Amino acid sequence: xxxxxxxxxxxxxxxxxxxxxxxxxxxxxxxxxxxxxxxxxxxxxxxxxxxxxxxxxxxxxxxxxxxxxxxxxxxxxxxxxxxxxxxxxxxxxxxxxxxxxxxxxxxxxxxxxxxxxxxxxxxxxxxxxxxxxxxxxxxxxxxxxxxxxxxxxxxxxxxxxxxxxxxxxxxxxxxxxxxxxxxxxxxxxxxxxxxxxxxxxxxxxxxxxxxxxxxxxxxxxxxxxxxxxxxxxxxxxxxxxxxxxxxxxxxxxxxxxxxxxxxxxxxx
Length: 268
What we know:
Family: Belongs to the MscS (TC 1.A.23) family.
CATH architecture of the largest domain: 2-Layer Sandwich
Keywords: Cell inner membrane, Cell membrane, Ion channel, Ion transport, Membrane, Transmembrane, Transmembrane helix, Transport
Radius of gyration: 31 Å
Subcellular location: Cell inner membrane; Cell membrane
InterPro entries: LSM_dom_sf, MS_channel_C, MscS_archaea/bacteria_type, MscS_beta-dom_sf, MscS_channel_2nd, MscS_channel_C_sf, MscS_channel_TM-2
Helix content: 40-55%
Number of helices: 8
Transmembrane segments: 20-39, 60-79, 85-112
CATH class of the largest domain: Alpha Beta
Largest sheet: 5 strands, antiparallel
């Protein structure tokens, strides 16, 4: 009994401190997530504020609270904030070198939020990686590719790369190239394409559909077609106009050449 009491007296305070620290971490984690979600909802429910800013603020609120929780846990074990600052100050160079990538991502996150080269839901290409922006937080930008693959891009890399935003403007130009046979009537083929474009309500009349001969290939005369449409209709116009032109060419005797191969056999 005396030995048991001695062990309780020796390890009791440590066990109590560990329990307090564990409880503080759990409660702090829950509070950080709850306040972060609350900040996101408040910002997103404000019509004049972009939802991209809501995600960034939520991430910042969450990490600030977690840092406060960490300081509280350290104080439970007797490590005061002033001591922690002194320790960090003494190791400034080492910490700076170790965290320079993370600090760069945070700074880039602020720049991306300030200038907003892309927003949530927009389709972008960041340094050669294309996808829809799903999230922008304090450290990374999350993209979802058209085949539903998650891509995580560090903010520092995103800010330092060429960004192509396909969703920024309300309208886009659809470029198509149709090849016809050298023996076919060029003006007739151009008229077919123009009439199909003018008959499509999704294609804008201004700028007017543009069809020109742009190349004399090895086996075809290439007709480049440029039409304008709403951004949301880009792919539908591209695919359906291609199909419509092919069917109209077939119906009106315009041939689309394709490579032919000749097999030569040498008999003994």
